[in-house]
C-alpha cells in the first residue's frame, strides 16, 4: 500500500485496486484482452508488477473487480435475512445486489459486456463467478428447506431459476446499451420466479402434510362442473 | 488415422480418439492433471504429438471426450421432436441423453467426478460444457414459445431448472460411487421440473386465453367445500 500512495500521490483518493482495474480495462479495450500483459497494466498504472498480483490473482479478475466484495455483501445479506420471510423472496432480493454492481456504472458494464462476448477466457471466468453466486443462493435455500424431503433438489433448481432470470433481465439491459432501468428489467424477470416458486406460488415448497396443507387443482375451462368438483374432492382427500 | 492404425496394430478396434482419451485419463489419475503433459499422453498412447491435437483442442477436452458427440445427439433429438409434445418434456428427455453418457460407464464417470472436484481448471471446463447444453435447451424452448410474451425469459429459466435438476440427480448418483440406478435418480429430480413448468404443470407457460385455458385453483385443506366450489366457479368464469 505504501507503494500505491507514493506512486499515486496526485490521485490519493483512488485506491490502488481501482487504479489497476481501470488501467487494465483501458488497455483491454485499446489492445484486446489477450494482447495486454500484466507488465503493460502495471506500466500504465505506474506501479510495480507485484502490486498487480497483490490485488488480482489473474488478468481475468481485474475485469470483474467488484465480484469478491459483492459475494461478501451477499453472504452478509443472507445471514441477516429473517427466517420469517419467504425464502424465494430473500434469494431474489440477494440477486439484486449483483445487479447493483452493474447498474451503478452503466458505461463500464456495457463495455465489459462487449469485451466478455469477444474473449472466450472471460466468458468462462464469468461462468465460474455466476456459479459461485448460484451456489451461495442454493446453500441458503437448502438450509431454509432442510425439513422438506426434496429441499436440496428444490434449493438447486430455484437458485438456478433465480440466476437465469436475473441474467435474462441484466443481459437485456446490457444489450440495450445500458438504456432504461436495469432494476426494472431484472424485477420483471424475477417476478416469474417469485410467482412460480415463492410461498403461495404455484410451485412452492411443500411442507409436511398438515391440516393447513395447500391443495392445487388444475382443470380445463371446457371441463364439466361435475368433473371439476369430483377432482377437487379427490384432491382434498388425497392431498 | 494411418498413424493410428500402424501404432495400434494390436488393438485395431479401439479408435485413436479413445486410445488417447484412455491414456490421458490413466495418467491424470496416476500423476495428477496438472503434472501430466501432452507429451506424456502421446508417449503412453504410442503416437505422435500432433495426433493428440487432431482429436482434442486441449488436455481438458480429453477428460470429457463424449460431450461433443452428445451435443450433436441432442441437436438431432431436439430437431426431430414433435411440436405436439410438451416442450418441457422434450427438454427433460433431451437432458437424459447427457445422463446416458455418464451411466454407460459408471466407474469412469465416478473417477472423473473425483478428478474434476480436485482440479479447478476441469471444473471451469465442465461449467462451460454444461452451459452449452443449457443454451441448446433454452434455444429449443425459445423457438417453441416464440408466441408467448415472456417466452424468451421462460425458456432460459426452464432450461436452467432442467440442467440444475439433472445435475442434482447425476451428482447424487456419482457421490454414491455409481451405485443404484442413475436414470432413476435423474428421473426423480426432473419430476419437479416437469410438474412445475410442464403443460398442465402449475407454472406452465400461459398461452393466449382460449376456451381450453387451464384454470389453477389453490385451497387450504381446512377450507369448507362450499368455499372451494365457489372459488372454482369464479376461477372458471374469470380465468
TrEMBL record, chains A, B:
Residues annotated as domain HTH tetR-type: 14-74
Signal peptide coordinates: none
Keywords, sorted A to Z: DNA-binding
Source organism, top-level taxon: Bacteria
InterPro entries associated with the record: DNA-bd_HTH_TetR-type_CS, Homeodomain-like_sf, HTH-type_TetR-like_transc_reg, HTH_TetR, MftR_C
DNA-binding region: 37-56
One family name in Pfam for this protein: TetR_N
Name of the protein this chain belongs to: TetR/AcrR family transcriptional regulator
Source organism (scientific name): Streptomyces endophyticus
Amino acid at each position: 500500500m505504501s507503494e500505491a500512495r507514493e506512486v499515486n500521490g496526485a490521485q490519493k483518493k483512488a485506491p490502488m485496486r481501482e487504479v489497476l482495474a481501470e488501467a487494465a480495462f483501458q488497455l483491454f479495450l485499446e489492445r484486446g484482452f489477450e494482447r495486454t500483459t500484466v507488465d503493460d497494466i502495471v506500466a500504465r498504472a505506474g506501479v510495480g508488477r507485484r502490486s498487480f498480483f497483490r490485488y488480482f490473482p489473474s488478468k481475468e479478475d481485474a475485469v470483474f473487480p467488484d465480484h469478491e466484495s459483492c459475494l461478501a455483501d451477499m453472504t452478509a445479506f443472507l445471514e441477516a435475512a429473517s427466517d420469517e420471510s419467504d425464502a424465494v423472496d430473500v434469494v431474489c432480493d440477494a440477486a439484486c445486489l449483483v445487479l447493483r454492481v452493474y447498474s451503478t456504472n452503466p458505461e463500464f458494464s456495457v463495455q465489459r459486456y462487449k469485451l466478455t462476448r469477444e474473449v472466450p477466457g472471460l466468458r468462462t471466468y464469468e461462468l465460474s463467478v455466476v456459479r459461485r453466486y448460484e451456489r451461495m443462493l442454493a446453500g441458503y435455500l437448502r438450509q431454509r428447506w432442510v425439513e422438506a424431503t426434496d429441499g436440496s433438489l428444490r434449493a438447486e433448481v430455484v437458485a438456478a431459476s433465480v440466476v437465469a432470470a436475473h441474467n435474462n433481465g441484466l443481459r437485456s439491459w446490457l444489450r440495450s446499451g445500458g438504456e432504461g432501468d436495469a432494476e426494472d428489467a431484472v424485477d420483471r424477470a424475477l417476478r416469474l420466479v417469485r410467482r412460480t416458486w415463492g410461498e403461495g406460488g404455484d410451485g412452492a415448497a411443500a411442507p409436511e402434510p398438515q391440516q393447513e396443507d395447500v391443495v392445487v387443482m388444475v382443470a380445463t375451462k371446457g371441463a364439466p362442473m361435475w368433473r371439476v368438483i369430483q377432482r377437487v374432492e379427490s384432491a382434498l382427500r388425497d392431498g
